[in-house]
Amino acid sequence: MLSYWIDLGFSFLDPSDVSWRFPIAFQILLAVFIVCCELHRQLTSSNNHTNNFPVIPGLPESPRWLILKGREARALEVMAALSDLPEDDPAVLDEFKAVKDTVFEMAQGSFSDSFRTNRNRNLHRTILAYVNQMFQQISGINIITYYAATIFHNNIGMSAFMSRLLAALNGTEYFIASWVAIFTIEKFGRRKLMLFGAAGQALSMAVLAGTTSVPGNAPLGIIAAVFLFVFNSFFAVGWLGMTWLYPAEITPLDIRAPANAISTTANWIFNFMVVMVTPVAFNAIQWKTYLVFAAINAFMVPCVYFFFPETAYRSLEEMDEIFHQAKGLRGALTVVKIAREQPHRYGKNGELLIAWEDTEDARDVERRRSSIVPHGAAGATEKFDGSTFENGGEKREHM
């Protein structure tokens, strides 16, 4: 949003080089600010395990990472804070036990593990994460974010100033629309927002194709301008933040980092592709370029519906249970049905519905553990009745 308004303001300095040099250089200031804040955090938080980062005050580490590092007391404290419950609450202790029982078994993942066809269906889940990122970019969003002013000027026939002003307003509306997802992502779930966004984007692109197919028609030009805003709104609600949330929720803990790194490459590869192809496409097929993206967005709707399981109100351990039940190639289709029918362990307000010990995965973990570690072996037992647990040199008493 800020970049559009800076571009508009400095356009008045044209033909001076400052009109384009400063908007490019200004981006460096934000990167320098982030680096300085991170250095400050590293210097001030190493001893007391708290985050004194001035921009994100009090942001804790992941409970799973803390358990892997042997800081179980801190992990329990974070889980309790996130749930807004006491540390000895049964729901918090149950979640702690569920995470601890699985986190060590899944802590040694590598990039190659992302492509394994194992019980966790690593390859399947990596593909879902990758395609999710790809869909975001091939939707055509960067036609608008990169070329909004050009579209307003060349395709719709507006003046240079009005084109830049509308591009800035378009970016502002895009920012405002993005806030809608914050209040709807949990209420409606991931799948519904993705379906809503893709369907709306397909409709918007189809309207843009129709309204720009008749050059010099002022009323159609106004409709086209409006639907550039409409497309942004659908994208902001359905897909803008989704591709940074869904891949992290769909991948198992052991490959979470490498799988998300792989999926992020799709974001930038297809970003680059769309940005480079768009000018060529407009020169070659003109308004029909919008039809191509309308078809792509329409294709995304059945893909999401049939292949992408819902992750809302699911823990990472629950997603593992769901994928464990998907078998063979048919599992790519059945996983959505499995997720829909699988009972939730936690309610919409975070209340415990099904204890970890009552799940099949918990019984599997116990069977594997009993076959490896003799009962009563030193250091192999924990107590979760609200009194004591210890690991990695940490010990905490619950009152």
TrEMBL record:
Predominant location: membrane
InterPro entries from the UniProt entry: MFS_dom, MFS_sugar_transport-like, MFS_Sugar_Transporters, MFS_trans_sf, Sugar/inositol_transpt, Sugar_transporter_CS
GO CC, alphabetical: membrane
Assigned protein family: Belongs to the major facilitator superfamily. Sugar transporter (TC 2.A.1.1) family.
Pfam families reported for this sequence: Sugar_tr
Domain of life, source organism: Eukaryota
Membrane topology type: Multi-pass membrane protein
The organism of origin for this protein: Friedmanniomyces endolithicus
Sequence ranges assigned to domain Major facilitator superfamily (MFS) profile in this UniProt record: 1-312
Keyword presence, Transport: yes
Residue intervals passing through the bilayer: 20-39, 127-149, 161-181, 193-214, 220-246, 266-285, 291-308
Cellular localization per UniProt: Membrane
UniProt keyword Transmembrane helix present: yes
Name of the molecule in the record: Major facilitator superfamily (MFS) profile domain-containing protein
Region annotated Disordered, chain positions: 368-399
Keyword terms: Membrane, Transmembrane, Transmembrane helix, Transport
